[in-house]
Design a protein that fits this description.
227 residues; 53% helix; Alpha-Beta Plaits; alpha/beta; 5 helices; 6-stranded mixed beta sheet
Length: 227
């Protein structure tokens, strides 16, 4: 074993001697090697510190989540909270244009707008109703218009709709139409109203927001005092 080590040293030293001589003769080489080693050490230290910060952040988040769950566990009356959430959901659904399919809600809104405008003597130049693309209805909604911040989140089991209505300008009839929109039980939000005085004849454009969804249970709309 000793002879093998001696043989290896005997063969290796002559091969290393030029490098050793160059190391001893060149101060630039020595400083360059030291600089590279220093950079590697600093990089390794920064990597370790980053890993420590990540683990510390993860531990802090876990503690916060544990504290939140502990507080939630100490709170009671979950049945009342569930009932309150159900009542809010039913209230949203009672404001939606009902139908077993969102397309039926679109048709109901379109028919209602035509009926109201006809009854007020307004001439309809254009009427379009389309579902707004949302994460829950996105690709399945056809036709659809892009979502925005107001319709990115809609109540469960409902679909956001947008209606565009253009009628000839009759001031008293248009004001009556706005009053009908406000009185209607279903949700109707006027997000835009444009008076086109330069058109022939003058026109008014309304953009409306609405919700489509299934009908609310009868119990939700029962008069007070009844079971």
């Amino acid at each position: 074993m000793t002879s093998m080590a001696d043989t290896w040293i005997t063969r290796t030293l002559p091969a290393l001697s030029p490098w050793v001589a160059q190391w001893q003769a060149s101060a630039r080489l020595r400083w360059g090697v030291r600089l590279v080693l220093g950079i590697l050490c600093v990089h390794g230290l920064l990597t370790v510190l980053d890993d420590v910060d990540q683990k510390r952040s993860a531990l802090k988040a876990a503690r916060q989540e544990g504290s939140r769950l502990a507080v939630m566990g100490q709170e009671g009356d979950w049945a009342a909270r569930a009932q309150q959430a159900q009542e809010q959901l039913l209230a949203y659904r009672s404001m939606a244009w009902s139908g077993s399919d969102p397309a039926l809600g679109e048709a109901a809104l379109q028919d209602w707008l035509r009926k109201v405008t006809s009854g007020l003597g307004l001439t309809v130049r254009d009427l379009q109703v389309a579902r707004v693309a949302t994460p829950s209805a996105g690709a399945a909604a056809t036709p659809a218009v892009p979502a925005d911040s107001l319709t990115a989140r809609v109540p469960p089991q409902t679909t956001a709709m947008r209606a565009k209505l253009i009628v000839d300008l009759k001031r008293s009839a248009v004001m009556a139409l706005l009053a009908e929109l406000q009185r209607n039980e279903q949700s109707l939000l006027v997000e835009r109203l444009v008076w086109r005085g330069s058109a022939v004849p003058p026109q008014v454009e309304l953009q409306l927001r609405a919700l489509a969804g299934p009908s609310a249970p009868i119990a939700a709309s029962a008069p007070k005092g009844q079971p």
